[in-house]
Amino acid sequence: MSDAGGAIGQLASGIGTAVTALLVLVWLAVTAVLSVVGVGLLMVPGVLGALHALAGRERARLARYGPEVVAPEPPPTQLRLALVDPTTRRELRWLVRHATLGLLLGVLGALLPLVAVRDTAFPLMWKLMPDGATATSIGFGTAESWPEAFAVTLLGVGWIAIILGLSPGMARLQAQPGRLLLAAGPDTDLSLRIAELTATRAAALDAHATELRRIERSLHDGTQNRLVTVTVLLGAARRQVARDPAGADELLERAQSAAEQALAELRTVSRSILPPVLADRGLAGALSGLAAESAVPCRTDVEAPERCAASVEATAYFVVAEALTNIAKHSGAGQAAVTVRARGSRLNLRIEDDGRGGADEDGGSGLTGIRRRVAAHDGTLRVTSPPGGPTTLEVDLPCGS
Fold it and tell me: At what angle do helices 44-64 and 2-35 cross, to 10 degrees?
């Protein structure tokens, strides 16, 4: 049942790109006709840009329902180069198939659940229908009695059987052209992508090692020293309790204070590993808490209707926390803003301040640590900070990694 539901969702999601593909296909046809008189040549860059953008959207859609479709190098938008470019030709073949077969399958995938519900529930409504009205969703037959009404229900059960049996195959058939034609071809040089993945994985391991060292230092220099102090004070109080009860009571009070401080530091360290507020209140609530505690007045605007992977939400949380710390320490800003949007399989963060600008990754501002955290998820970080401000950090993360 879950496979069929996912397949129906995938088919329905393909309607958007399929309708757009049909429009782009018509645009291409008009451009080709007008090119005979020269006018269409001016439209070529625009229509090719739309084709490439649509292919990128389809790759992102397919990645939400299966393995990632590795994109080739950006194809050209100039006519002469496009005519001999294999990527453009493959995208054109996909466009024709997705605008026709893909659209048909998407519409069927969206209609099948509707007709299944309608026919299955027909006995509940047939008394309210006018005389002579068609009983079934496919346009034939009338119901004059309860047995005939329940016969329509059998048709609804048949639709359900079709959904369960055929919808996964329909979804695969709709996705097949995109996975075959929009992926990087065998002649594509993937060495740059491999080098990029190698670098990001190395950065992730380095960031992980740095985080472990930070946790070890926090435990060793803080919590462990507090616990040693508690042990020493308890030992001294035990030896002193018989001959000087008042002095022993003072030592016990100091030991209790040290133990409470150790517990507070231990809680701080544990929160820095994975903040429990993320599990309790979600990303929106966690970021609202950060904004409320920020030294610089900060407003948040979060639209993330679905939860991302816990590691991604933790990365987003720490990125915002580090950014707000940087703003308070270095920017001289009067206010800041955090905007979060979940779009499909991507989580976009934007942190802005009205400070003096001039943020530099080499200046010890914490941006290097943020970049490493983001790179560990194959995300991107863009910093815009001209002298005089404002400073903007834009982070793009994949939701599911």
Answer: 170
